[in-house]
Structure prediction request, 530 residues.
Amino acid sequence: MTALQLATNIPWWGSTGIKVGLGLAVVLAPAGLTVYLYLFKMVSFMQSRLGPMEAGPYGSMQLLAEVGKSLQKEDIIPAKADRNVFAMAPYIVLMSTFLMAVVIPFGPNALFTDLDTGVFFALAVSSISVIGILMAGWASASKYSLLGGLRAAGQLIAYELPMVLAVVGVVIQAGTLNLQQIVYAQIDGEIFGFGGLGLPFILTQIVGFGIFMIAVQAELTQVPFDMPIAESELVSGYMTEYSGFRFLMFFIGEFATAAIFAFLASVLFLGGWAVPPFVMDILGIDATSNWFNVLGPLVMASKMLLLTFVIYWVRFTFPRLREDQLQKFAWKVLIPISLVNIAITGTLKVAF
Amino acid sequence: MSARVLAQEMTNTEEWVASGVFYVIALVALVAAVRMVTTNNVVHAALDLLVVLASVAAVYILLGAEFAAATQLLVYVGAVMVLMLFGVMLTRAQIGAEEDLNHEQRWIGGLVAVVLFAVMAYSLVEAFEDDVLPADRAVQRTQEVSDAIFSTYIVPFEALSLLLLAALIGAVVVARRD
Prediction:
Protein backbone atom coordinates (compact mmCIF):
# COMPACT_ATOMS: atom_id res chain seq x y z
CA MET A 1 0.00 0.00 0.00
CA THR A 2 2.64 2.50 1.06
CA ALA A 3 4.82 2.04 -1.98
CA LEU A 4 1.95 2.85 -4.27
CA GLN A 5 0.80 5.80 -2.22
CA LEU A 6 4.29 7.22 -2.52
CA ALA A 7 3.94 6.83 -6.23
CA THR A 8 0.61 8.68 -6.29
CA ASN A 9 1.96 11.63 -4.31
CA ILE A 10 3.52 13.10 -7.43
CA PRO A 11 1.81 16.23 -8.84
CA TRP A 12 -1.36 15.89 -10.86
CA TRP A 13 0.33 16.51 -14.20
CA GLY A 14 2.90 13.82 -13.42
CA SER A 15 0.30 11.21 -12.57
CA THR A 16 -1.73 12.26 -15.60
CA GLY A 17 1.29 11.69 -17.81
CA ILE A 18 1.87 8.25 -16.32
CA LYS A 19 -1.81 7.40 -16.78
CA VAL A 20 -1.73 8.46 -20.43
CA GLY A 21 1.26 6.17 -21.02
CA LEU A 22 -0.39 3.28 -19.19
CA GLY A 23 -3.64 3.94 -21.03
CA LEU A 24 -1.84 3.56 -24.35
CA ALA A 25 -0.39 0.28 -23.10
CA VAL A 26 -3.74 -1.01 -21.84
CA VAL A 27 -5.40 -0.32 -25.19
CA LEU A 28 -2.61 -1.19 -27.62
CA ALA A 29 -0.90 -4.18 -25.98
CA PRO A 30 -4.03 -6.39 -25.80
CA ALA A 31 -4.94 -5.36 -29.36
CA GLY A 32 -1.53 -6.42 -30.68
CA LEU A 33 -1.51 -9.59 -28.63
CA THR A 34 -4.97 -10.74 -29.72
CA VAL A 35 -4.32 -9.88 -33.36
CA TYR A 36 -1.19 -12.03 -33.39
CA LEU A 37 -2.50 -14.87 -31.24
CA TYR A 38 -5.96 -15.19 -32.69
CA LEU A 39 -6.26 -13.36 -36.01
CA PHE A 40 -2.91 -14.57 -37.35
CA LYS A 41 -2.24 -17.87 -35.60
CA MET A 42 -5.41 -19.43 -34.20
CA VAL A 43 -7.40 -18.99 -37.37
CA SER A 44 -4.50 -20.44 -39.36
CA PHE A 45 -4.47 -23.58 -37.26
CA MET A 46 -8.25 -23.86 -37.57
CA GLN A 47 -7.80 -23.74 -41.34
CA SER A 48 -4.88 -26.22 -41.35
CA ARG A 49 -2.20 -23.76 -42.32
CA LEU A 50 0.68 -22.13 -40.48
CA GLY A 51 -0.05 -18.43 -40.87
CA PRO A 52 2.75 -15.85 -40.83
CA MET A 53 6.12 -17.56 -40.19
CA GLU A 54 8.76 -15.26 -41.71
CA ALA A 55 8.80 -12.04 -39.69
CA GLY A 56 10.59 -12.79 -36.42
CA PRO A 57 10.55 -16.09 -34.54
CA TYR A 58 7.37 -17.96 -35.42
CA GLY A 59 6.04 -14.89 -37.22
CA SER A 60 5.71 -12.94 -33.99
CA MET A 61 6.91 -9.67 -35.57
CA GLN A 62 4.33 -9.86 -38.35
CA LEU A 63 2.13 -7.20 -36.77
CA LEU A 64 5.00 -4.70 -36.58
CA ALA A 65 5.68 -5.36 -40.24
CA GLU A 66 2.03 -4.70 -41.04
CA VAL A 67 2.07 -1.47 -39.05
CA GLY A 68 5.22 -0.36 -40.86
CA LYS A 69 3.60 -1.17 -44.19
CA SER A 70 0.47 0.80 -43.32
CA LEU A 71 2.48 3.81 -42.18
CA GLN A 72 4.36 3.93 -45.49
CA LYS A 73 1.24 3.77 -47.62
CA GLU A 74 -0.14 6.88 -49.24
CA ASP A 75 -2.86 8.58 -47.21
CA ILE A 76 -5.58 8.80 -49.85
CA ILE A 77 -8.59 11.06 -49.43
CA PRO A 78 -11.16 10.73 -52.24
CA ALA A 79 -11.49 13.86 -54.39
CA LYS A 80 -15.18 14.35 -53.61
CA ALA A 81 -14.92 13.46 -49.93
CA ASP A 82 -15.61 15.88 -47.11
CA ARG A 83 -11.95 16.18 -46.12
CA ASN A 84 -12.23 17.29 -42.47
CA VAL A 85 -14.95 14.87 -41.46
CA PHE A 86 -13.23 12.08 -43.38
CA ALA A 87 -9.95 12.74 -41.59
CA MET A 88 -11.53 13.03 -38.15
CA ALA A 89 -13.70 9.88 -38.20
CA PRO A 90 -11.05 7.29 -37.18
CA TYR A 91 -9.97 9.46 -34.25
CA ILE A 92 -13.53 9.50 -32.90
CA VAL A 93 -13.73 5.70 -33.07
CA LEU A 94 -10.38 5.33 -31.29
CA MET A 95 -11.35 7.97 -28.71
CA SER A 96 -14.35 5.93 -27.61
CA THR A 97 -12.07 2.91 -27.10
CA PHE A 98 -9.63 4.88 -24.95
CA LEU A 99 -12.43 6.42 -22.88
CA MET A 100 -13.81 2.96 -22.11
CA ALA A 101 -10.43 1.82 -20.78
CA VAL A 102 -10.48 4.66 -18.25
CA VAL A 103 -12.89 3.04 -15.78
CA ILE A 104 -11.65 -0.56 -15.82
CA PRO A 105 -9.94 -1.61 -12.56
CA PHE A 106 -6.85 -3.83 -12.71
CA GLY A 107 -6.22 -4.08 -8.99
CA PRO A 108 -7.16 -2.49 -5.64
CA ASN A 109 -5.17 0.63 -6.54
CA ALA A 110 -4.21 -0.13 -10.11
CA LEU A 111 -6.91 1.84 -11.87
CA PHE A 112 -7.12 5.03 -13.91
CA THR A 113 -10.12 6.57 -12.21
CA ASP A 114 -12.65 5.23 -9.74
CA LEU A 115 -15.80 6.68 -11.26
CA ASP A 116 -18.93 6.15 -9.21
CA THR A 117 -20.90 5.56 -12.40
CA GLY A 118 -18.31 3.02 -13.66
CA VAL A 119 -20.07 0.61 -15.96
CA PHE A 120 -22.70 3.19 -16.99
CA PHE A 121 -19.92 5.53 -18.12
CA ALA A 122 -18.20 2.72 -20.04
CA LEU A 123 -21.40 1.84 -21.93
CA ALA A 124 -22.13 5.54 -22.57
CA VAL A 125 -18.74 6.25 -24.14
CA SER A 126 -18.80 3.01 -26.12
CA SER A 127 -21.72 4.48 -28.07
CA ILE A 128 -19.56 7.39 -29.28
CA SER A 129 -17.91 5.09 -31.83
CA VAL A 130 -21.18 5.03 -33.81
CA ILE A 131 -20.68 8.72 -34.55
CA GLY A 132 -17.22 8.04 -35.96
CA ILE A 133 -18.54 5.21 -38.13
CA LEU A 134 -21.41 7.37 -39.46
CA MET A 135 -18.93 10.19 -40.18
CA ALA A 136 -16.64 7.79 -42.04
CA GLY A 137 -19.51 6.36 -44.04
CA TRP A 138 -20.93 9.72 -45.05
CA ALA A 139 -17.71 11.65 -45.68
CA SER A 140 -16.27 9.03 -48.03
CA ALA A 141 -18.70 10.10 -50.78
CA SER A 142 -19.18 6.49 -51.81
CA LYS A 143 -22.36 4.43 -51.96
CA TYR A 144 -20.74 1.40 -50.38
CA SER A 145 -19.36 3.46 -47.53
CA LEU A 146 -22.68 5.18 -46.87
CA LEU A 147 -24.58 1.89 -46.90
CA GLY A 148 -22.00 0.35 -44.59
CA GLY A 149 -22.16 3.32 -42.22
CA LEU A 150 -25.96 3.22 -42.07
CA ARG A 151 -26.00 -0.54 -41.49
CA ALA A 152 -23.42 -0.13 -38.74
CA ALA A 153 -25.38 2.63 -37.04
CA GLY A 154 -28.64 0.65 -37.12
CA GLN A 155 -26.87 -2.41 -35.79
CA LEU A 156 -25.02 -0.60 -33.01
CA ILE A 157 -28.17 1.13 -31.80
CA ALA A 158 -30.08 -2.15 -31.82
CA TYR A 159 -27.45 -4.08 -29.86
CA GLU A 160 -26.62 -1.35 -27.37
CA LEU A 161 -29.98 -1.93 -25.70
CA PRO A 162 -29.57 -5.65 -24.89
CA MET A 163 -26.00 -4.92 -23.77
CA VAL A 164 -27.10 -2.28 -21.27
CA LEU A 165 -30.04 -4.41 -20.13
CA ALA A 166 -27.77 -7.46 -19.64
CA VAL A 167 -25.49 -5.41 -17.39
CA VAL A 168 -28.45 -4.24 -15.30
CA GLY A 169 -28.77 -7.76 -13.83
CA VAL A 170 -25.20 -7.58 -12.52
CA VAL A 171 -25.75 -4.06 -11.22
CA ILE A 172 -28.86 -5.16 -9.31
CA GLN A 173 -26.97 -8.06 -7.73
CA ALA A 174 -23.92 -5.99 -6.80
CA GLY A 175 -25.99 -2.98 -5.75
CA THR A 176 -23.58 -0.53 -7.38
CA LEU A 177 -22.48 0.82 -10.74
CA ASN A 178 -18.87 1.19 -9.64
CA LEU A 179 -16.73 -1.48 -11.31
CA GLN A 180 -14.34 -1.73 -8.34
CA GLN A 181 -17.28 -2.32 -5.97
CA ILE A 182 -18.64 -4.94 -8.39
CA VAL A 183 -15.33 -6.80 -8.08
CA TYR A 184 -15.49 -6.64 -4.27
CA ALA A 185 -19.11 -7.80 -4.32
CA GLN A 186 -17.99 -10.89 -6.24
CA ILE A 187 -15.15 -11.58 -3.77
CA ASP A 188 -17.48 -11.27 -0.77
CA GLY A 189 -20.26 -13.31 -2.39
CA GLU A 190 -21.12 -16.78 -1.17
CA ILE A 191 -22.61 -19.79 -2.93
CA PHE A 192 -25.14 -21.22 -0.45
CA GLY A 193 -22.91 -20.21 2.44
CA PHE A 194 -19.71 -21.43 0.78
CA GLY A 195 -17.39 -18.48 0.27
CA GLY A 196 -14.34 -20.29 -1.13
CA LEU A 197 -15.08 -19.38 -4.71
CA GLY A 198 -16.61 -15.99 -4.02
CA LEU A 199 -19.56 -15.48 -6.32
CA PRO A 200 -18.54 -14.73 -9.90
CA PHE A 201 -21.71 -13.26 -11.38
CA ILE A 202 -21.47 -15.58 -14.37
CA LEU A 203 -22.98 -18.27 -12.11
CA THR A 204 -26.16 -16.32 -11.37
CA GLN A 205 -26.19 -14.11 -14.48
CA ILE A 206 -25.38 -16.74 -17.09
CA VAL A 207 -28.23 -15.41 -19.25
CA GLY A 208 -26.91 -11.87 -18.91
CA PHE A 209 -23.41 -13.06 -19.76
CA GLY A 210 -24.63 -14.77 -22.92
CA ILE A 211 -26.59 -11.71 -24.04
CA PHE A 212 -23.64 -9.45 -23.22
CA MET A 213 -21.20 -11.50 -25.29
CA ILE A 214 -23.62 -11.69 -28.25
CA ALA A 215 -24.14 -7.93 -28.06
CA VAL A 216 -20.36 -7.41 -27.88
CA GLN A 217 -19.96 -9.48 -31.02
CA ALA A 218 -22.52 -7.27 -32.75
CA GLU A 219 -21.05 -4.01 -31.41
CA LEU A 220 -17.69 -5.02 -32.81
CA THR A 221 -19.36 -5.74 -36.19
CA GLN A 222 -17.69 -9.15 -36.23
CA VAL A 223 -19.02 -12.25 -37.94
CA PRO A 224 -21.85 -13.38 -37.65
CA PHE A 225 -22.92 -9.72 -37.37
CA ASP A 226 -20.54 -8.18 -39.91
CA MET A 227 -23.09 -6.85 -42.41
CA PRO A 228 -21.67 -3.28 -42.15
CA ILE A 229 -18.36 -4.43 -43.62
CA ALA A 230 -19.68 -7.43 -45.56
CA GLU A 231 -16.95 -7.82 -48.17
CA SER A 232 -19.11 -9.70 -50.67
CA GLU A 233 -21.76 -6.96 -50.69
CA LEU A 234 -20.16 -3.67 -49.67
CA VAL A 235 -16.43 -4.04 -50.47
CA SER A 236 -15.44 -3.04 -46.93
CA GLY A 237 -18.36 -0.89 -45.77
CA TYR A 238 -17.49 2.38 -44.08
CA MET A 239 -13.76 1.56 -44.28
CA THR A 240 -13.75 1.17 -48.08
CA GLU A 241 -12.09 4.49 -48.92
CA TYR A 242 -9.58 4.48 -46.08
CA SER A 243 -5.94 3.61 -46.53
CA GLY A 244 -2.62 3.86 -44.75
CA PHE A 245 -2.60 5.22 -41.23
CA ARG A 246 -6.31 5.98 -41.03
CA PHE A 247 -7.20 2.43 -42.00
CA LEU A 248 -4.72 1.23 -39.39
CA MET A 249 -6.58 3.28 -36.79
CA PHE A 250 -9.89 1.63 -37.66
CA PHE A 251 -8.14 -1.73 -37.56
CA ILE A 252 -6.54 -1.10 -34.16
CA GLY A 253 -9.81 0.37 -32.89
CA GLU A 254 -11.71 -2.79 -33.79
CA PHE A 255 -9.35 -5.17 -32.01
CA ALA A 256 -8.63 -2.88 -29.08
CA THR A 257 -12.37 -2.49 -28.51
CA ALA A 258 -12.73 -6.28 -28.54
CA ALA A 259 -10.08 -6.50 -25.81
CA ILE A 260 -11.63 -3.68 -23.76
CA PHE A 261 -15.09 -5.28 -23.95
CA ALA A 262 -13.47 -8.54 -22.83
CA PHE A 263 -11.92 -6.69 -19.87
CA LEU A 264 -15.33 -5.23 -19.06
CA ALA A 265 -17.01 -8.62 -19.28
CA SER A 266 -14.39 -10.21 -17.02
CA VAL A 267 -14.93 -7.48 -14.42
CA LEU A 268 -18.71 -7.83 -14.60
CA PHE A 269 -19.05 -11.60 -14.80
CA LEU A 270 -15.76 -13.36 -14.01
CA GLY A 271 -14.65 -11.61 -10.84
CA GLY A 272 -12.33 -9.00 -12.32
CA TRP A 273 -8.75 -8.79 -11.06
CA ALA A 274 -9.43 -11.02 -8.05
CA VAL A 275 -8.61 -14.70 -7.72
CA PRO A 276 -11.05 -16.96 -5.84
CA PRO A 277 -10.91 -16.38 -2.05
CA PHE A 278 -9.61 -19.91 -1.31
CA VAL A 279 -6.59 -19.17 -3.51
CA MET A 280 -6.13 -15.93 -1.57
CA ASP A 281 -6.12 -18.01 1.65
CA ILE A 282 -3.44 -20.32 0.25
CA LEU A 283 -1.33 -17.36 -0.85
CA GLY A 284 -1.95 -15.68 2.49
CA ILE A 285 -3.08 -12.35 1.06
CA ASP A 286 -6.40 -10.53 1.27
CA ALA A 287 -8.33 -8.61 -1.37
CA THR A 288 -6.81 -5.22 -0.53
CA SER A 289 -3.26 -6.55 -0.52
CA ASN A 290 -0.70 -4.63 -2.51
CA TRP A 291 0.19 -7.87 -4.30
CA PHE A 292 -3.01 -7.57 -6.29
CA ASN A 293 -1.72 -4.44 -7.98
CA VAL A 294 0.84 -6.72 -9.64
CA LEU A 295 -1.18 -9.93 -9.82
CA GLY A 296 -4.43 -8.19 -10.83
CA PRO A 297 -3.33 -7.03 -14.30
CA LEU A 298 -2.06 -10.56 -15.04
CA VAL A 299 -5.33 -12.13 -13.88
CA MET A 300 -7.25 -9.59 -15.97
CA ALA A 301 -5.05 -10.32 -18.98
CA SER A 302 -5.67 -14.05 -18.76
CA LYS A 303 -9.43 -13.55 -18.41
CA MET A 304 -9.33 -11.12 -21.33
CA LEU A 305 -7.47 -13.68 -23.48
CA LEU A 306 -10.04 -16.33 -22.58
CA LEU A 307 -12.97 -14.12 -23.58
CA THR A 308 -11.35 -12.77 -26.75
CA PHE A 309 -10.65 -16.39 -27.69
CA VAL A 310 -14.39 -17.02 -27.59
CA ILE A 311 -15.05 -13.83 -29.59
CA TYR A 312 -12.64 -14.86 -32.38
CA TRP A 313 -13.71 -18.49 -32.24
CA VAL A 314 -17.27 -17.42 -33.00
CA ARG A 315 -15.98 -14.99 -35.62
CA PHE A 316 -14.23 -17.73 -37.59
CA THR A 317 -16.93 -20.37 -37.14
CA PHE A 318 -20.34 -18.88 -37.91
CA PRO A 319 -21.80 -17.77 -41.25
CA ARG A 320 -23.10 -14.23 -41.67
CA LEU A 321 -26.70 -13.38 -40.74
CA ARG A 322 -29.00 -11.40 -43.01
CA GLU A 323 -29.71 -7.75 -42.22
CA ASP A 324 -33.36 -8.33 -41.26
CA GLN A 325 -32.47 -11.42 -39.20
CA LEU A 326 -29.98 -9.30 -37.30
CA GLN A 327 -32.55 -6.65 -36.35
CA LYS A 328 -35.18 -9.25 -35.50
CA PHE A 329 -32.72 -11.13 -33.32
CA ALA A 330 -31.95 -8.00 -31.30
CA TRP A 331 -35.47 -6.64 -30.89
CA LYS A 332 -37.52 -9.83 -30.68
CA VAL A 333 -35.16 -12.24 -28.90
CA LEU A 334 -32.38 -10.55 -26.95
CA ILE A 335 -34.26 -7.57 -25.52
CA PRO A 336 -37.29 -9.55 -24.23
CA ILE A 337 -34.99 -12.17 -22.67
CA SER A 338 -32.87 -9.52 -20.96
CA LEU A 339 -36.01 -7.77 -19.65
CA VAL A 340 -37.23 -11.06 -18.17
CA ASN A 341 -33.74 -11.56 -16.72
CA ILE A 342 -33.94 -8.14 -15.02
CA ALA A 343 -37.39 -8.89 -13.61
CA ILE A 344 -36.29 -12.26 -12.19
CA THR A 345 -33.04 -10.85 -10.78
CA GLY A 346 -34.88 -7.96 -9.14
CA THR A 347 -37.50 -10.26 -7.63
CA LEU A 348 -34.88 -12.65 -6.24
CA LYS A 349 -32.83 -9.72 -4.91
CA VAL A 350 -35.83 -8.46 -2.93
CA ALA A 351 -36.86 -11.99 -1.85
CA PHE A 352 -33.43 -12.91 -0.42
CA MET B 1 -8.39 10.04 -9.51
CA SER B 2 -9.99 13.37 -10.42
CA ALA B 3 -13.14 12.37 -8.54
CA ARG B 4 -11.11 11.93 -5.37
CA VAL B 5 -9.42 15.27 -5.94
CA LEU B 6 -12.74 17.07 -6.22
CA ALA B 7 -13.99 15.48 -3.02
CA GLN B 8 -11.05 16.86 -1.08
CA GLU B 9 -10.23 20.49 -0.57
CA MET B 10 -9.10 21.83 -3.91
CA THR B 11 -5.71 23.46 -3.95
CA ASN B 12 -5.15 26.78 -5.63
CA THR B 13 -3.54 25.31 -8.73
CA GLU B 14 -6.32 22.79 -9.16
CA GLU B 15 -8.90 25.55 -8.82
CA TRP B 16 -7.04 27.47 -11.54
CA VAL B 17 -6.86 24.43 -13.80
CA ALA B 18 -10.56 23.73 -13.28
CA SER B 19 -11.45 27.30 -14.22
CA GLY B 20 -9.18 27.18 -17.25
CA VAL B 21 -10.71 23.92 -18.42
CA PHE B 22 -14.18 25.42 -18.00
CA TYR B 23 -13.33 28.38 -20.23
CA VAL B 24 -11.86 26.09 -22.87
CA ILE B 25 -14.99 23.92 -22.86
CA ALA B 26 -17.24 26.99 -22.94
CA LEU B 27 -15.31 28.43 -25.88
CA VAL B 28 -15.53 25.15 -27.79
CA ALA B 29 -19.28 24.97 -27.14
CA LEU B 30 -19.77 28.58 -28.21
CA VAL B 31 -17.80 28.24 -31.44
CA ALA B 32 -19.59 24.99 -32.30
CA ALA B 33 -22.98 26.57 -31.60
CA VAL B 34 -22.27 29.53 -33.87
CA ARG B 35 -20.93 27.24 -36.59
CA MET B 36 -24.01 25.05 -36.28
CA VAL B 37 -26.41 27.84 -37.24
CA THR B 38 -24.17 29.39 -39.90
CA THR B 39 -22.99 26.30 -41.79
CA ASN B 40 -24.39 25.45 -45.19
CA ASN B 41 -24.34 21.70 -44.75
CA VAL B 42 -26.90 19.72 -42.80
CA VAL B 43 -24.46 17.01 -41.66
CA HIS B 44 -21.95 19.61 -40.51
CA ALA B 45 -24.70 21.30 -38.52
CA ALA B 46 -25.54 17.99 -36.84
CA LEU B 47 -21.89 17.31 -36.02
CA ASP B 48 -21.47 20.81 -34.57
CA LEU B 49 -24.57 20.30 -32.42
CA LEU B 50 -22.95 17.09 -31.24
CA VAL B 51 -19.89 19.03 -30.09
CA VAL B 52 -22.15 21.41 -28.14
CA LEU B 53 -23.92 18.53 -26.40
CA ALA B 54 -20.62 16.78 -25.60
CA SER B 55 -19.28 20.05 -24.15
CA VAL B 56 -22.29 20.17 -21.83
CA ALA B 57 -21.37 16.65 -20.66
CA ALA B 58 -17.82 17.88 -20.03
CA VAL B 59 -19.16 20.75 -17.90
CA TYR B 60 -21.21 18.24 -15.89
CA ILE B 61 -18.05 16.24 -15.20
CA LEU B 62 -16.28 19.41 -14.14
CA LEU B 63 -19.11 20.03 -11.65
CA GLY B 64 -18.76 16.51 -10.25
CA ALA B 65 -22.12 15.36 -11.65
CA GLU B 66 -20.88 12.08 -13.13
CA PHE B 67 -24.26 10.46 -13.57
CA ALA B 68 -25.68 13.45 -15.43
CA ALA B 69 -22.59 13.52 -17.67
CA ALA B 70 -22.79 9.82 -18.54
CA THR B 71 -26.53 10.15 -19.18
CA GLN B 72 -25.94 13.18 -21.39
CA LEU B 73 -23.42 11.16 -23.42
CA LEU B 74 -25.60 8.05 -23.62
CA VAL B 75 -28.81 9.84 -24.52
CA TYR B 76 -27.76 12.81 -26.64
CA VAL B 77 -24.48 11.73 -28.22
CA GLY B 78 -25.18 8.00 -28.37
CA ALA B 79 -28.85 8.01 -29.28
CA VAL B 80 -30.48 11.31 -30.27
CA MET B 81 -27.67 12.59 -32.48
CA VAL B 82 -27.07 9.17 -34.01
CA LEU B 83 -30.73 8.95 -34.98
CA MET B 84 -30.63 12.50 -36.33
CA LEU B 85 -27.51 11.79 -38.41
CA PHE B 86 -29.08 8.51 -39.50
CA GLY B 87 -32.19 10.29 -40.71
CA VAL B 88 -30.26 13.06 -42.44
CA MET B 89 -27.97 10.61 -44.19
CA LEU B 90 -30.85 8.42 -45.35
CA THR B 91 -32.73 11.33 -46.92
CA ARG B 92 -30.57 14.28 -47.93
CA ALA B 93 -26.88 14.19 -47.26
CA GLN B 94 -24.98 15.78 -50.08
CA ILE B 95 -21.37 16.69 -49.50
CA GLY B 96 -20.46 20.35 -49.75
CA ALA B 97 -22.55 23.49 -49.36
CA GLU B 98 -26.29 23.34 -49.89
CA GLU B 99 -28.47 26.18 -51.07
CA ASP B 100 -31.68 27.43 -49.52
CA LEU B 101 -30.88 26.04 -46.10
CA ASN B 102 -31.81 29.44 -44.66
CA HIS B 103 -35.39 29.70 -43.56
CA GLU B 104 -37.17 33.01 -44.15
CA GLN B 105 -38.20 33.17 -40.49
CA ARG B 106 -34.60 33.05 -39.27
CA TRP B 107 -34.70 36.69 -38.08
CA ILE B 108 -37.62 35.91 -35.77
CA GLY B 109 -35.77 32.84 -34.55
CA GLY B 110 -32.68 34.94 -33.85
CA LEU B 111 -34.79 37.46 -31.95
CA VAL B 112 -36.35 34.72 -29.82
CA ALA B 113 -32.89 33.34 -29.09
CA VAL B 114 -31.58 36.75 -27.99
CA VAL B 115 -34.62 37.35 -25.76
CA LEU B 116 -34.30 33.86 -24.24
CA PHE B 117 -30.59 34.43 -23.59
CA ALA B 118 -31.27 37.78 -21.96
CA VAL B 119 -34.01 36.40 -19.70
CA MET B 120 -31.95 33.37 -18.64
CA ALA B 121 -28.75 35.35 -18.12
CA TYR B 122 -30.60 37.98 -16.08
CA SER B 123 -32.39 35.45 -13.87
CA LEU B 124 -29.23 33.38 -13.32
CA VAL B 125 -27.17 36.43 -12.37
CA GLU B 126 -30.01 37.69 -10.20
CA ALA B 127 -30.42 34.35 -8.43
CA PHE B 128 -26.78 33.54 -7.71
CA GLU B 129 -25.02 36.92 -7.82
CA ASP B 130 -21.57 36.46 -6.26
CA ASP B 131 -22.00 32.87 -5.11
CA VAL B 132 -18.94 30.74 -5.70
CA LEU B 133 -18.86 26.94 -5.76
CA PRO B 134 -17.64 25.56 -2.42
CA ALA B 135 -14.01 24.45 -2.60
CA ASP B 136 -14.78 21.09 -0.97
CA ARG B 137 -17.60 20.19 -3.31
CA ALA B 138 -18.11 16.45 -3.43
CA VAL B 139 -18.84 14.27 -6.41
CA GLN B 140 -22.56 13.59 -6.74
CA ARG B 141 -23.11 9.95 -5.78
CA THR B 142 -25.29 7.95 -8.14
CA GLN B 143 -27.14 6.58 -5.13
CA GLU B 144 -28.18 10.09 -4.07
CA VAL B 145 -29.48 10.76 -7.57
CA SER B 146 -31.52 7.56 -7.66
CA ASP B 147 -32.79 8.09 -4.10
CA ALA B 148 -34.03 11.55 -5.10
CA ILE B 149 -35.65 10.28 -8.31
CA PHE B 150 -37.47 7.41 -6.63
CA SER B 151 -38.63 9.26 -3.52
CA THR B 152 -38.92 13.04 -3.81
CA TYR B 153 -39.47 13.18 -7.55
CA ILE B 154 -41.33 9.91 -8.04
CA VAL B 155 -44.48 11.58 -9.46
CA PRO B 156 -42.73 13.66 -12.14
CA PHE B 157 -40.61 10.61 -12.96
CA GLU B 158 -43.64 8.38 -13.48
CA ALA B 159 -45.42 11.11 -15.43
CA LEU B 160 -42.40 11.42 -17.73
CA SER B 161 -42.32 7.65 -18.21
CA LEU B 162 -45.98 7.71 -19.23
CA LEU B 163 -45.33 10.60 -21.61
CA LEU B 164 -42.49 8.68 -23.24
CA LEU B 165 -44.64 5.55 -23.50
CA ALA B 166 -47.38 7.59 -25.16
CA ALA B 167 -44.83 9.05 -27.60
CA LEU B 168 -43.55 5.54 -28.33
CA ILE B 169 -47.02 4.18 -29.09
CA GLY B 170 -47.77 7.31 -31.11
CA ALA B 171 -44.66 6.76 -33.22
CA VAL B 172 -45.63 3.16 -33.88
CA VAL B 173 -49.16 4.21 -34.88
CA VAL B 174 -47.87 6.94 -37.20
CA ALA B 175 -45.30 4.65 -38.81
CA ARG B 176 -47.72 1.79 -39.47
CA ARG B 177 -48.83 1.55 -43.06
CA ASP B 178 -51.95 -0.65 -42.75
